[in-house]
Amino acid sequence: MKYTMNPQDIEFERIIHEHKSTIYTVCYMFSKDADEVNDLFQEVLINLWKGYASFKGESKLETWIWRVSFNTCSSEKRKRRLHEDIPLAMDINLFCDMDDDTQQIQMLYRRIHRLKPFDRAIVLLWLEGLPYEEIAAIIGISVKNVSVRLYRIKEELKKISDQ
Amino acid sequence: MTQHIDSKELLEMKGQMALLKQKLEKETIVHEQLMRKVMKVKADSLRTKAILESILALTVIPVFTWVMHSLFHFSIALCLFFGIAVTCAQIYSYYIHHHFRPKDFINNSVIEAKKETLQLKTYYANWLKYISIPFDITFLTWFIYEAIQLSQADNTSTIIFSISFVVIFITVFILAMGQYFKIQRTADEIIGHIGELCRLNEKKL
Question: Which long-range contacts (CB under 8 A, 24 or more apart) does B184-188 make?
Answer without folding.
Answer: B184/B121, B184/B124, B184/B125, B186/B42, B186/B45, B186/B46, B187/B46, B187/B117, B187/B118, B187/B120, B187/B121, B188/A3, B188/A4, B188/B121
